[in-house]
DNA sequence: AACACTGTCAACCGCGCATTG
DNA sequence: GCAATGCGCGGTTGACAGTGT
């Protein structure tokens, strides 16, 4: 217990849950004097609570404009977006959500998004799942690309047949986006990026200093909603 | 039924900034 | 310029309810 706390107890400051009577006294005080001057609440009302405690109680519980009840999906979206932009600046986030308090948003975030980081083994398995998913997506896009190329070849052959006998058959102009796709697929580095994942065994273990990598990955995996902590990196 | 575990939320704590004398 | 004071903020704790075993 620190010096201030022991002094408070010596002076008879109350701590812990607020009673209905205390709430009424505080509410009446704010109605008469407005918010602020929290340290004079005790003198003027007889409440044996510190100014800090009074302010907290008013801001987080007694304020008439507070919105009670569950956070709505819309509010959750706003919280996620703002947290991605602002980080743990709960008061700033709360200002964008009328009727919600920083404490409420902070609690909500911790409860719903900041899940405990899984064990190293679990993390390695999640990583493997993610990499497999990436590989699947790569194979799908490769398959699609091959189909598209086949169709183009068929169309080209058809055109050539039709134009047979004419002086100069038109030269095919490849689609730019397809060229880009082909370039990407043919790029050894990009292939490497997707394919190396396959060889990761189920029980693989991450290296000891993977924190930064994991934080980035965690955000990516978070995208499918299956797991994750949102975008608050480096807090563990 | 009893116990352990987990989620939720009100409240407290410590720190830093702004204001005041 | 500086110390004292008030206030706001983010992090943490602890009580309680709900759920699982």
Automatic annotation (TrEMBL):
InterPro entries: EOBI/EOBII-like_plant, Homeodomain-like_sf, Myb_dom, SANT/Myb. It is found in: Nucleus. The keyword Methyltransferase does not apply. Residues 10-62, 63-113 form the Myb-like domain. GO terms for cellular component: nucleus. Keywords: DNA-binding, Nucleus, Repeat, Transcription, Transcription regulation. Residues 14-62, 63-117 form the HTH myb-type domain. GO terms for molecular function: DNA-binding transcription factor activity; sequence-specific DNA binding. This is Uncharacterized protein.
């Amino acid at each position: 217990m620190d010096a201030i706390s022991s002094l408070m107890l010596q002076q008879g400051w109350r701590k812990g849950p607020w009673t209905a009577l205390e709430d009424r006294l505080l509410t009446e005080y704010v109605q008469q004097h407005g918010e602020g001057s929290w340290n004079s609440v005790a003198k003027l009302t007889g409440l044996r609570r510190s100014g800090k405690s009074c302010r907290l109680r008013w801001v987080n519980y007694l304020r008439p404009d507070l919105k009670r009840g569950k956070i709505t999906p819309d509010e959750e979206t706003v919280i996620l977006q703002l947290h991605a932009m602002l980080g743990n600046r709960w008061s700033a986030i709360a200002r964008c959500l009328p009727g919600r308090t920083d404490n409420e948003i902070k609690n909500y975030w911790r409860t719903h998004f900041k899940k405990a980081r899984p064990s190293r083994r679990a993390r390695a398995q999640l990583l493997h799942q993610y990499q497999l998913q990436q590989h699947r997506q790569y194979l799908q896009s490769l398959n699609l690309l091959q189909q598209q190329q086949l169709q183009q070849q068929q169309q080209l052959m058809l055109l050539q047949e039709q134009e047979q006998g004419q002086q100069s058959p038109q030269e095919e102009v490849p689609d730019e986006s397809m060229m880009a796709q082909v370039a990407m697929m043919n790029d050894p580095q990009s292939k490497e990026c997707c394919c190396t994942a396959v060889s990761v065994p189920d029980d693989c273990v991450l290296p000891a200093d993977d924190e930064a990598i994991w934080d980035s990955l965690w955000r990516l995996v978070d995208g499918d909603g299956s797991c994750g902590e949102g975008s608050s990196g480096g807090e563990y």
